[in-house]
Amino acid sequence: MKLDDSGPDPVDTRLGVRLAELRAERGWSLGELADRSGVSKSTLSRAERAEISPTASLLNRLCGVYGRTMSQLLSEVEAEPALLVRAAGQPVWEDRASGFVRRSVSPPHPGLRGELVEGRLAPGADIAYDRPPVPGLEQHIWVLEGTLDVTAEDVGHHLGTGDCLRLRVWGPTRFRCAGPDAVRYVLAVVLP
Prior knowledge:
This protein is of the alpha+beta class. It contains 5 helices and 10 strands; from the N terminus they run H-H-H-H-H-E-E-E-E-E-E-E-E-E-E. It has a 6-stranded antiparallel β-sheet with strand order 1-2-3-10-5-8, with no helix packed on it. Strands 4-9-6-7 form a 4-stranded antiparallel β-sheet. The two termini are 30 Å apart.
């Protein structure tokens, strides 16, 4: 993602257009989408116009309403995924507000159910999702460096380097980097 303030990020602009298309496809007003997602009409409008860069939490809520994973939504605004994705070509998205950086290592493909994501959280970063984007989503969280606290449905898990947590996501989740160093992990996502 773009790190300067010289104008809207091209990915944010395409994302805003796609979010507006998804809402229009369903015939929903901003008010109806606000009611379904729990996000204010003004925030939704600003995201659709690329006046703000959406946070991970906001995208998660919208993905839940639209029945998509975050990677699926982001892949819809990027080029058609290739069979081989070189490291330099892997899309990176940053939620600067929370200290979360997400690299789509193996972007989703309509004919496949799984994907790999690299996540990085800065020390103290804390991301909470109130619901999964797709109920029953299978996740495998493998910590490569650092420590990560994951809470799923009120059950906490403390993961160190090399640990892997496997779960199906039905309710709220939380990812927290409590250590003095950043954490880097692989998230394998499999649609139900």
